[in-house]
Amino acid sequence: MGGASGALAAIHLTRQVNPPNLVVIEPREELGRGIAYATRSPAHLLNVRAGNMSAFPDMPDHFLDWLRREHDPSADAGSFAPRMVFGRYLQSLAARSGAVHCRQGAVAVRVEGEAASVVLADGGSIPASRVVLALGHFPPVDLPRISADALSGGLYHRDPWGDFPLPSDRDSPVVLIGTGLTAVDMLLRLREKGHRGPVTMVSRHGLLSLGHAPCAPGAGPAVPDSTAPSAGAYLAAFRSAVRNGAAWRAAVDSLRGTSNPLWARLPTGEKARFRRHLFHYWSVARHRMAPCIAEQVERERRAGLLAIRRGHVRDLAMSAGVGHLTIVTSGGTESLAASCVINCTGPATDYRKVQSPLLRALFLDGHAVAGDLGVTLATGADGALEGASGACSRVLYAIGPMRAGTLFETTAIPEIRQQARGLAMHLAGIQS
């Protein structure tokens, strides 16, 4: 639990609790890197400008100052730094936090009144007055109908961040399932490793993430808080703002501070409607590529080396040593040849089905329930876990992506640092 979310929680707790008595349970050697920032590729850039990546909301230039001092003296607030560099930044802060790093996995949490005990994979346990869950992301949901020989032959890779070999034939075709930022990362990884062959990205909507560009901030939120709580009304308000002169990027950015309250106002049916019809459009506009990455992707498309297909996967099989991915499109079924198929559909969010002994135990013991639309966990104020009884825990808390069952925006550093600060202040208030 020592990725970016866990590290930020520890960093902020040490600012609020004195003396700190923190244990970060994380089997990996380094704290702060997690999945996103553990990359060793300099081509994998942040998709947020350096000026908005400080670990501390009250010190907005903290990361930028560190970046200039430790990596690039010429960096400015608009720079898109390598993610591995940001990982170093978080790692350095976590190392100075005073937290004890327990290199184990957690498999359960036993709660007794106002205290808890975290059960470790080796059979040991750690007593705690409060437990913060920061498990980050889980591998994508598996593709349907994958043949045994496709699995045994190493054709298919479920976890895009796993340690797997890329095709030995540098000119062979590769298929990436998904068209979001993870798929773009895999394209960059392929090219960095010398792959020259054609790459096809496939997703149900065929929408590629868009690129950042300079834009003047809007005068106010594109969707005012007085807007009727429905997906249609939110869309109409956004379109009206753009028609009245707001740049679409500025309109999207104007909602960073209000999207969670707007989401909370929606009835469950409207949330489902938004997820089904609008979320993919929002996602590609909200989670944008660094400009130089967007330019590289566009060059690949113009050169015919990258194709974007709209359709859904039916099955994956092998024939004569070659992979064949069958997709269903508006025109019928098609078969795509591939030497490598990488699942880039995004992290699994139904925590009732992911492979996690810890989450399985929390659900079984009634300490956790699924959030809205079955997504991650239901949480209350400050990230307190909602249990099967409907009450929020005073012992168990969640941070970052684990709060997506309640919050709309909860996966980016600007949102997680606010959560970490708020949670630290809340827990410090309990202890005082």
UniProtKB/TrEMBL annotation:
Residue ranges of domain FAD-dependent urate hydroxylase HpyO/Asp monooxygenase CreE-like FAD/NAD(P)-binding in the record: 2-138
Transmembrane feature ranges: none
Entry-linked SUPFAM superfamilies: FAD/NAD(P)-binding domain
Pfam families recorded: NAD_binding_9 (PF13454)
UniProt xrefs under PANTHER family: BLR0577 PROTEIN (PTHR40254)
Single GO term (MF): hydrolase activity
Identification of the protein by name: Hydroxyacylglutathione hydrolase
Keyword Isomerase: no
Coiled coil residues, start to end: none
Keywords of the record: Hydrolase
